């Protein structure tokens, strides 16, 4: 009787351990789930408004276009200061166009 109870407990522990391992393998990290939601929303919208500096961004943009061909990339180029000012103006007007901003450390 004691042996039978011990075997049942061991069997239950094995099933629980297997279930936990299976669940952990299927679960995505929080950043991945957030990223998947962001990409899905961008695909649904079909467009990404990217405010970016004037130089050196074309290789990055081409990689984005290859990875996400269903998302139209609309870029607004300028200095960090001019783009920062533009975004602040958009915020104050209640109509933010920029989805993503890449600027330098000296943006005012």
Specify the CATH homologous superfamily of the domain at 41-108.
Periplasmic binding protein-like II
The DSSP helix count reads 4
What order do the strands of the largest sheet run in, or round the barrel if closed?
2-1-3
Characterize the quaternary organization of these chains. single chain
Order of helices and strands: HHEHEHE
Topology:
Layout: H1 2-26, H2 30-45, E1 47-52, H3 58-67, E2 72-77, H4 80-93, E3 100-102
Explain how this protein is built.
There is one protein chain. This protein has 108 residues and is α/β, with parallel strands linked by helices. The protein has a domain at 41-108: Periplasmic binding protein-like II (D-Maltodextrin-Binding Protein, domain 2, 3-Layer(aba) Sandwich). Helices cover 60% and strands 14% of the residues. The chain has 4 helices and 3 strands; from the N terminus they run ααβαβαβ. The protein has helices spanning 2-26, 30-45, 58-67, 80-93, and strands at residues 47-52, 72-77, 100-102. Strands 2-1-3 form a 3-stranded parallel β-sheet. β1, α3 (58-67) and β2 form a beta-alpha-beta unit.
Quick structural gist:
The protein has 108 residues and is α/β, with parallel strands linked by helices. The chain has helices at residues 2-26, 30-45, 58-67, 80-93, and strands at 47-52, 72-77, 100-102.
């Amino acid at each position: 009787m004691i042996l039978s109870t011990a075997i049942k407990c061991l069997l239950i522990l094995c099933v629980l351990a297997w279930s936990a391992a299976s669940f952990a393998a299927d679960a995505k990290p929080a950043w991945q789930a957030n990223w998947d939601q962001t990409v899905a929303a961008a695909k649904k919208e079909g467009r990404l408004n990217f405010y970016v500096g004037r130089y050196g961004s074309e290789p990055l943009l081409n990689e984005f276009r290859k990875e996400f061909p269903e998302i139209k990339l609309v870029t607004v180029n300028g200095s960090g200061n001019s783009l920062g000012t533009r975004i602040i103006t958009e915020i104050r007007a209640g109509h933010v166009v920029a989805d993503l901003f890449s600027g330098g450390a000296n943006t005012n």
